[in-house]
Amino acid sequence: MGAERINAVKTSFFGRGAISLLPDELKKRGFRRALIVTDKFLAEQGVVSRVGGVLASAGTEYALFDRVAPNPTVGIVNACIEAAKASGAQVLVAVGGGSAIDTCKAAGIVLSNGGRVEDYEGVEKSVHPGMPVIAVNTTAGTGSEVTCFYIVTDDVRHSKMCMVDANCIVDIAVNDTDFMISMPEGLTASTGMDALTHAIEAAMTWRATPLTDKDAYWAIGVIREYLPRAVRDGTDEEAREMMAYAQYVAGMAFSNAGLGMVHAMAHALGGFYNLPHGVCNAILLPYVLEYNGQFLQAQGRFKKIGKAFGIREEPGMSMVHEVVRAVRALAGEVGIPGRLRELKIVKESDFPALAKLAVADACMDTNIGKARAGDVIQVYRAAM
Ligand SMILES: [Fe+2]
């Protein structure tokens, strides 16, 4: 094992009521003007006015940008950049899940470095740290508040650009379960399955280390136990809190170990058809695990993932098969579709184009086994 670089968020506030810790931090850092970046739904739900009240109590004035949408596009990021400039903000405050946080990360990088959003596609393309970002997370899945990844959809190519850049890491992450409790069942399930995919992919990459492993395997076990509870009863505080920790820790794992073929293929699907990220991952995960199960170097990982799922190994047992079965059972339990055809928009004739996008995605580089476009098409077909 060689030298290892670890990236982490600077300050994190956790647990119910954690937002109350923010005013002192704002004063300490001297943020006088902010731009709240969110979507129309959260702006109308009173979530934004609550965060606005916290900013005001620290003497921080704020303007509002409420045009974030799922799978944020270059156009949305550009509009956010203009709003930040017009408001004179010193800090961007994301209120939402991965879409709001990624919009802020992308805008922050362009505001500090100049150029266009598209210039930063790939790995470590910026020079300067992005404009400061505070992430008030309202979902439990993407881990974007802790990772050095962000995703922006190119509206012209209808594909997702994956950016991996330590300069985008947010300054303050707030995981206050008060903001997660009202998440609807479907969103709880899809974001939770995204977190599971992060943990499993981080455990499977060839860049995994003991430091990322401890996070990845812990998160798998916690998500297995608490996601069904959070989906069944959104007011289950313990389940919400454990999911908040697990998705954060899974984010820490993949931010440093990388992801793999599930995310590469899900980015292609999500960008092409504007589908929810967590659902794409959850459908593809068992099929990619079957593909990765053919590689000798993956066998030890499957044993450890199986253990995290609570599977007791017996002689003659195929751990690849057992892990795939456990993943399918969990997805079914939380109501995620099992096949791409159930999404009613995916077409087999698009698979060659999707495979081309997936092979070029930065996440493919860290998959445990090589995958060519033909292999990717086969996995899409199997998942159809
Ligand atoms: Fe993800």
Description:
The protein is α/β, with parallel strands linked by helices and 384 residues long. The protein folds into 2 domains: 11-179, Rossmann fold (3-Layer(aba) Sandwich), CATH 3.40.50; 185-383, Dehydroquinate synthase-like - alpha domain (Dehydroquinate synthase-like, alpha domain). Helices cover 50% and strands 11% of the residues. The protein has 14 helices and 9 strands. The chain has helices at residues 22-29, 40-44, 47-57, 74-87, 98-113, 185-204, 210-232, 237-257, 261-273, 277-292, 299-308, 319-333, 351-360, 373-383; strands at 11-14, 33-37, 61-65, 91-96, 122-123, 133-137, 149-154, 159-164, 172-175. The strands form 2 sheets. The protein has a 6-stranded parallel beta sheet with strand order 1-9-6-4-2-3, sandwiched between helices. A 3-stranded mixed beta sheet has the order 5-8-7. A hairpin with a 4-residue loop joins strand 7 (149-154) and strand 8. Helix 4 (74-87) crosses helix 5, helix 7 packs antiparallel against helix 8 (237-257) and helix 13 packs across helix 14. It is globular, with a radius of gyration of 20 Å. The two termini are 39 Å apart. The model has no long low-confidence stretch (mean pLDDT 95). The chain binds fe (ii) ion. Fe (ii) ion binds at residues 142, 194, 198, 263, 277, 281. Residues 142, 194, 198, 263, 277, 281 line the site of fe (ii) ion (FE2).
